[in-house]
Write a structure and sequence with these properties.
The chain has one helix at residues 7-41, and strands spanning 43-50, 60-65, 68-74, 80-84, 88-95, 102-109, 114-116, 121-123, 132-138, 149-155, 161-168, 174-176, 185-192, 195-202, 208-214. The protein has one helix and 15 strands.
């Protein structure tokens, strides 16, 4: 004879199964939450810039212990980064194309604390990958012009320009701009006493480019 299942008994079994399933789900979430909270509760943060205090995007930031990389991240378009780490002591390295590697040594990370490394983590250009523009400014007597403003412009393919830097000539009439990257043509413009002169330079590879600008002004005796 086949036994017919009791509907009440089946209902109780189903309820128990649901309760156990819910218990395991809650338990799993309870176990995961502390781990997630711990992973996000300590580490380092900061902002990477160049020597002109402009943000550097896509800098690779790595935390190292005994020379071994334990975790890494990249800076965003504003140069900001957050790197979650377990409590400990790390060397934090910064790498970016066209820049020399920078390292902050013995950075201590405490539990439940994000160590702020600052808003001005400065990286210097790798001179081997830079376009360097130098020159000298003369007057009509071929004597140097000092304290003359000199502007460096990027010249675009359509002929438009974008100012990059401004410096002044020294006592010898010389000037030098900070290194630049990925610029195919520049214009150097010097001015003094209402007179200006320019020189265009094709900068198709990283190296030192020199130019001379002559201004049609009379020589001024600095004394």
């Amino acid at each position: 004879m086949m036994l017919r299942p009791n509907s009440d008994a089946i209902g109780r079994i189903v309820q128990r199964m649901h309760r156990h399933k819910l218990f395991f789900i809650v338990l799993s979430i309870g176990l995961l939450l502390p781990l997630a909270a711990f992973a996000q509760s300590s580490g380092v943060k900061g902002r990477v810039r160049d020597v002109d205090y402009k943000s550097i995007a896509n800098v690779e930031i790595t935390a190292r212990v005994n020379g071994k990389v334990v975790r890494s991240t990249k800076s965003d378009r504003k140069g900001r980064f957050t790197l979650a780490l377990e409590p400990g002591t790390y060397n934090i390295a910064f790498d970016a194309a066209g820049y020399g590697t920078g390292v902050k040594y013995d950075v201590k990370v405490k539990e439940n604390d994000y160590r702020d490394l600052g808003e001005n983590l400065l990286m210097t250009r790798d001179r081997g990958s830079l376009i360097l523009v130098k020159g000298i400014v003369f007057d009509k007597a071929n004597l140097s012009v000092r304290d003359a403003p000199v502007d460096l412009y990027e010249v675009n393919a359509d002929g438009s320009t974008r100012k990059i830097q401004t410096v002044k000539t020294n006592r010898a009439g010389e000037f030098e701009f900070n290194g630049i990257m990925n610029v195919s043509k520049v214009r150097v413009t010097a001015s003094a006493n209402g007179v200006s002169g320019s020189s265009d330079i094709v900068t198709d590879s990283p190296q030192v480019y020199r130019t001379v600008i002559k201004l049609e002004i009379e020589h001024e005796d600095p004394n």
